[in-house]
Amino acid sequence: MRRYVVYVVASVAVVVIALVATIFVGNEPVLGLDLQGGISVRLFPAGNPSSSSLDTAKDIIDRRVNGLGVSDAEVAREGDNIVINLPGVKDRDKAKRLVGRTAELRFRPVFAELPSEAKQAPPANDAAKAAIAGCDPAALQQAAPALSGKDASGAKSRFSQGQGYAVELNLKGSGSDKINALAREAFSKPPPQNQMAIVLDGVVQSAPRFQTADFGSGPVEITGSFTQGEASDLASILQYGALPVKFDEKQQTVESVSPTLGSDQLRSGIAAGLVGLALVALYMLLYYRLLGVVVILGLGLSAGATYALVASLSLASGSVKGFAFFLGLSTVLDLAVAYFFMHPLVVLLAQRRPLVRVPVVGIASGLDAKEAPA
């Protein structure tokens, strides 16, 4: 008997504490693209890439988008096209820039700085001295690449004490030897020849100066006057750099998705759910009487636990995957509430004879059961 009391009290306490903590912290469930709006990017491949290349490109874009920390981002193939849905993202240019990079990632030594207005495209056979005008404030004239994105095994942004935000680049295989050879050659040179240009899609993403002539076999730290967002973007580019498919930028579309329709559907769904719950509660009270109260309390406890868990884990709603997850989660929580709250509470109520025998609303009347003779 005492065990059942502990189960009931503990169940209520856990859910109430979780709800209070969730509200106090300010956590809320994350809404999907159709419910909170955002940006949808559609990429069209150039030429006729293989299906496996498109799948690989989709996976890389998926990892790249997840690296941006976008909740419930969805990357999917629609035929030969790749569609990226970014809920809550408002910056169209940033979304287009980060998911649409297609060229190879290159690390090049720098020859000289050029005026930023020098934007003429270089001859195709003179790539070793290409003038890249994508950096600000000056373009960089670069030599042949010393290493490529294939030499990188990963990258992450972090806060470095005394340096501010930095990017840690990990290299694999001969990548460490290549960058050490470049560092030994460039370290003692005057600016800008002591820099290394990080180039993606023909645009200089960063041009850090070498601070040492040898990095050893460990990771390479890239520092500068980075903001947290700039460091995160650079790490994402280094981590997921090149795509195996070339996309046609002229056909690429970026659409803003309004949450109006989804919001209307959400409000209608909530209203319908409340009406349904009210009818179920009324039926339970009329048919099961006091036991119906137990069922209603169990539903409330299960709803509170579901909300607290979903909000705390920042799980998103609005997609098919989200619906399937919520369905499984609510089933598990219903079973837990039934075992730790509803069953013990029914047992405790059944021990109170007045609650069993009271006319009209008692447990016996709710079960339509006759009391056994003494």
Describe this structure in words.
This protein has 374 residues and is an alpha+beta fold. The chain has 3 domains: 140 residues, no CATH class; 77 residues, 2-Layer Sandwich (Alpha-Beta Plaits); 140 residues, Gyrase A, domain 2. The protein contains 11 helices and 15 strands. Strands 5, 6, 7, 8, 11 and 12 form a 6-stranded antiparallel sheet that branches. Helix 1 packs across helix 8 and helix 3 runs antiparallel to helix 6. The two termini are 23 Å apart.
Mean model confidence by pLDDT: 78
Give the count of structural domains.
Answer: 3
- Globally, the shape reads elongated
Report the sheet with the most strands, covering strand number, pairing sense and barrel closure. Answer: 6 strands, antiparallel
- Report the structural category: alpha+beta
Number of strands: 15
First-to-last CA distance: 23 Å
**Approximate helicity band:** 40-55%
SSE order in H/E notation?
HEHEHEEHEEEEEEHEEEHEHHEHHH
- The total of helices stands at 11
Stretches where pLDDT falls below 50 for ≥5 residues? 118-139
Into which percentage range does the β-strand content fall?
A: 15-25%
Alpha-carbon Rg, integer: 30 Å
In a few lines, what is going on in this structure?
With 374 residues, the chain is of the alpha+beta class. Helices cover 46% and strands 21% of the residues. The chain folds into 3 domains: 2-32 and 259-367, no CATH class; 38-102 and 246-257, Alpha-Beta Plaits (2-Layer Sandwich), CATH 3.30.70; 103-242, Gyrase A, domain 2 (2-Layer Sandwich).
